[in-house]
Write a structure and sequence with these properties.
The structure holds two protein chains of two kinds. Chain A is mostly beta strands. Helix content of chain A is 0%, strand content 56%. In chain A, strands 2, 4, 5, 6, 9, 10 and 11 form a seven-stranded mixed sheet that branches. The radius of gyration of chain A is 13 Å and the shape is globular. Chain A starts with a strand and ends with a strand. In chain B, strands 2, 4, 5, 9, 10 and 11 form a six-stranded mixed sheet that branches. A five-stranded antiparallel sheet of chain B has the order 1-3-8-7-6, with no helix packed on it. By secondary structure, chain B is an all-beta fold. The chains are: A mainly beta, B mainly beta. At the A-B interface, strand 5 and strand 10 of A face strand 4, strand 5 and strand 10 of B.
């Protein structure tokens, strides 16, 4: 009965590689998000999709490209990984009603070597 | 944009009460959320305030004063499992709907 799931949970890779993280929610929500939590535990929004349309696109390097094949899935592809990309990436989802509480996935711990 | 400030760490004894303050500055305040995050886990929703006053949910309560740009989360009858980071997040009407700005979190350590 997992609500928001992410794969993989851990990702260790070399600098310069390209990797993808997948997210799925079975809550029937319309909106999905990607957040980055750095080593100082600061949680920062990166992207948001509503019904497969991009609605939030924060200032992130264009090496990061989100893709939403349908409203239950939001994937994050990262090209040419850099050391500074090491962080925990959280997916979240919310319904389009007030207060639009966001529900988070378990996180993907990315380590770039 | 928003500036969100909360203390870095607080320590309290099991059974005690702890109050975590959060101050914010927004262009158009449209709601404040509190999340709990245990080490290595996802943030989980605790409370939401959009009007002034106190919202109570069991051992946890959250207060909001919009005129002061201030909120607090009150944790009563502390238990060891309450040791976690508590994140204050603010929504601004001038931002895209759903966008939250998070504070850096307050690490609460509960001691026996």
């Amino acid at each position: 009965d997992t609500a928001v799931s992410q794969t993989p949970k851990y990702l260790v890779t070399q600098m310069g590689n390209d990797k993808s993280i997948k997210c799925e929610q079975n809550l029937g929500h319309d909106t999905m998000y990607w957040y980055k939590q750095d080593s100082k535990k600061f949680l920062k929004i990166m992207f948001s999709y509503n019904n497969k349309e991009l609605i939030i696109n924060e200032t992130v390097p264009n090496r990061f490209s989100p893709k939403s094949p349908d409203k239950a899935h939001l994937n994050l592809h990262i090209n040419s990984l850099e050391l500074g990309d090491s962080a925990v990436y959280f997916c979240a989802s919310s319904q389009g009603d007030d207060p639009e509480t966001q529900y988070f996935g378990p996180g993907t711990r990315l380590l770039v070597l | 944009g928003q500036n969100i400030d909360q203390p870095t760490e607080m320590t309290a004894t099991e059974g005690a009460i702890v109050q975590i303050n959060c101050t914010y500055q927004t262009s158009g305040f449209n709601g404040l959320f509190w999340y709990q995050q245990h080490a290595g886990e996802a943030p989980t929703f605790l409370s939401y305030n959009v009007l002034d006053g106190l919202e109570e949910k069991g051992r946890f309560s959250s207060f909001l004063s919009r005129s002061k740009g201030y909120s607090y989360l009150l944790l009563k009858e502390l238990q060891m499992k309450d040791s976690a980071s508590y994140l204050c997040a603010v929504r601004d009407i001038t931002d895209s709907w759903g966008k939250l700005q998070f504070g850096a979190g307050t690490q609460v350590v509960v001691t026996p």
